[in-house]
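Consider the tokenized backbone below.
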């Protein structure tokens, strides 16, 4: 799964500055994370619930990172992507595949609805900026652009494009967060503190469940994080485990770089997500029409920026909204094409370890996925509902994903790289938090 230039053993950097040069996989995830969930679901939850559910946002961003770290650690040590690792061993198999892979298949099918909401939201923004095309034309155009940017299957262009697109909207976001404090919508320390009473109102249970699944790390982002770690080169630079002290030192060093990569991206998406939520709670709390879904949803949401900076800010918002939504569609096209390729390879349709077969699968899926998402949006044309569905499916699939992290940790131990007690505590906290929120929200939905 690595490029030829990565098929060499390389010693890891030993300094902080040296490690920065090797960051990247987590920043691709940030481009996907700081997107539809924040722009659509997080701001809407802030508008509907006020500040009281800020704690859900923080839990969603912080307590899933340990699960991501275990996936990254496992792939560096064993050199296997997520689904191939899932398929190894296990008592419960169906048609020669681990049963968990069928849960993954259901998730990847359902995610079509949510990703349709992302592409549809970007198409709405494009239509508002350049109304010469219809919503159908914009949706299909954006699907085609995603495919053209992804089908080559190379890692480096994906990393740089994702970071560039994400940066544009983050800059706009923080400018508006500062500006809101100069308006009647300014929020106080007491407002923020009210978000840590750890209450979950019954009327906010479904939204909280959706947002917990979609903001911060989603199930999809955690699963395809190892694909990016492998393509970046972490596993190849570590080399196969030969039991030597040199291998253990390399593995320990590249795991350290991977942890830094994951934590830097966590800071980016946690701060950004909280900012989105606070803006929604501050500005949109009295906006009664914000939850009315449909092809005017993004226009209504633009009032968030209009109220802060004035009507002229709508253009600023639209440029930022387009960038963040399109970057999510772009990064997820790349990520899910790898997940599908891994799954299809395990199912026996081709050899997943054959480079030419893998490149061909990635190229084909780079076209199939965005156009299937576009078709889902054109059928429903309700981006808010579609993103909420994606969040709920993410939350439920996170239960499977978190369980597999425990399997990685305890069924395949590596004595030379035994984690600390604090790492294990964080892993279990992440597991129980994911399961508690998912089950509790399901009960509230009854």
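A designed sequence for it:
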């Amino acid at each position: 799964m690595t490029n030829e230039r990565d098929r060499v053993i390389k010693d890891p950097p030993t300094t902080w500055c040296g490690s920065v040069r090797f960051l990247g996989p987590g920043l691709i995830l940030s481009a996907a994370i700081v997107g539809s969930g924040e722009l659509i679901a997080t701001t809407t939850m802030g508008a509907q619930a006020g500040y009281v559910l800020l704690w859900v946002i923080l839990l969603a961003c912080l307590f899933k990172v340990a699960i991501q770290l275990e996936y990254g650690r496992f792939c560096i040590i064993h050199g296997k992507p997520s689904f191939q690792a899932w398929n190894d061993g296990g008592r419960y198999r169906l048609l020669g595949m681990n049963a968990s892979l069928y849960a993954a298949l259901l998730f990847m099918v359902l995610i079509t609805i949510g990703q349709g909401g992302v592409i549809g939201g970007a198409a709405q923004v494009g239509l508002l900026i350049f109304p010469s095309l219809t919503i159908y034309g914009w949706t299909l155009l954006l699907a085609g652009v995603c495919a053209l940017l992804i089908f080559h299957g190379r890692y480096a262009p994906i990393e740089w494009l994702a970071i560039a697109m994400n940066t544009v909207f983050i800059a706009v976001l923080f400018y508006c967060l500062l500006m809101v404090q100069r308006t009647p919508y300014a929020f106080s320390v007491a407002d923020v503190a009210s978000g840590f009473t750890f209450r979950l109102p019954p009327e906010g249970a479904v939204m909280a469940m959706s947002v917990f699944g979609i903001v911060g790390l989603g199930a999809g982002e955690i699963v395809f994080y190892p694909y990016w770690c492998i393509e970046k080169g972490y596993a190849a630079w570590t080399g196969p485990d030969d039991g030597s002290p040199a291998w253990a030192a390399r593995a320990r060093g590249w795991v350290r770089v991977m942890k830094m990569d994951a934590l830097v991206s966590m800071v980016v998406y946690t701060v950004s997500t909280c900012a989105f939520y606070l803006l929604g709670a501050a500005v949109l709390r009295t906006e009664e029409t914000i939850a009315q879904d449909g092809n005017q949803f993004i226009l209504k949401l633009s009032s968030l920026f209009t109220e802060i900076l004035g009507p002229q800010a709508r253009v600023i918002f639209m440029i930022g909204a387009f960038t963040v939504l399109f970057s999510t569609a772009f990064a997820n096209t790349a990520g899910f094409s790898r997940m599908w390729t891994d799954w299809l390879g395990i199912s026996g349709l081709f050899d997943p370890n054959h480079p030419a077969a893998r490149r061909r699968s990635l190229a084909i899926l780079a076209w199939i996925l965005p156009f299937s998402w576009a078709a889902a949006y054109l059928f429903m044309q309700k981006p808010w509902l579609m993103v909420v569905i994606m969040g709920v499916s993410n939350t439920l699939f996170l239960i499977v994903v978190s369980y597999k992290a425990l399997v990685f940790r305890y069924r395949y131990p590596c004595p030379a790289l035994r984690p600390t007690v604090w790492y294990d505590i964080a892993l279990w906290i992440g597991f129980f938090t994911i399961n508690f929120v998912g089950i509790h929200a399901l009960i509230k939905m009854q």
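Confidence is low (pLDDT under 50) at residues 1-6.
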